[in-house]
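Researcher: Final request for today, and then I'll write up notes for the group meeting. The sequence and the SMILES for flavin mononucleotide follow.
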Amino acid sequence: MRRKREMKTLILYYSYGGNTKRIAEMIQREIGGDIARMDTVVPYDGDYDEVVNQGQREIAEGYCPELKPLNISWRDYDTIILGSPVWWYTFAPAMRSFLERADLTGKIVYPFTTNGGWLGHTLKDFEEACKGAIVKPGLDVRFDESMLRTSEKDIQAWINTIRR
Ligand SMILES: Cc1cc2nc3c(=O)[nH]c(=O)nc-3n(C[C@H](O)[C@H](O)[C@H](O)COP(=O)(O)O)c2cc1C
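Model: Predicted protein-flavin mononucleotide complex:
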C-alpha cells in the first residue's frame, strides 16, 4: 500500500517593517510548516512618510511590483497562510502581485494582516483575490508602530482554528 502523500502548510508573507514577519514567525512556532517571505525586486526606500505616499499611489493605481522568485513547490501544500501589512486599507502591492499570478485552486487559505488600527477592506479583498481557494476567516493584528496591541490570546485563538 502506498501511503497518501502528506500535505504541508506554507506560511507566506510580505513585511516591510517587520511586524508581519513577527506574526508569521509566531504562527510557525505554533503550527510548524514552512515559511517564506516575498520581496519586491525594487526595494522601498526613503523615509517612512515617502513609503506611505508611494504606497498610496501604488494602491490607487493597482500597481503590481515585480517580486523576487519564490521557488516554492506549490503542489506540496494544501494549506497556505498569507500575511500582509495593511497599506491604504488593503493588502500591500507585493501581495497583490503574488495573488494576481498565483493559482490557489483547491488550497485552503488563512489570511492575516497587521495594521495600525484601520483594517479597511483587507480581509474581504483577500477573499475576492484568492480565486478558487477556500478562504477561512482571517486575523487582524493591531500594532502601534512596532508595539503589539492585539492580545496574544486572540492571536492564539485564531491559530487554533488552522487545520492541522
Ligand atoms: C504604505 C503604508 C500604508 C499603510 N496604510 C495603513 C492603513 O491603511 N491602515 C492601517 O491601519 N495601517 C496602515 N499602515 C501601517 C501598517 O499597516 C502597520 O504598521 C503594519 O503592522 C506594518 O507591517 P510590517 O512591519 O510587516 O510592514 C500603513 C503603512 C504603510 C507603510
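Model: DSSP finds five helices and eight strands in the chain. The pocket of flavin mononucleotide is lined by residues 15-21, 51-52, 55, 85-89, 114-118, 120, 143 (CB under 6 Å).
Researcher: Thanks, that's everything.
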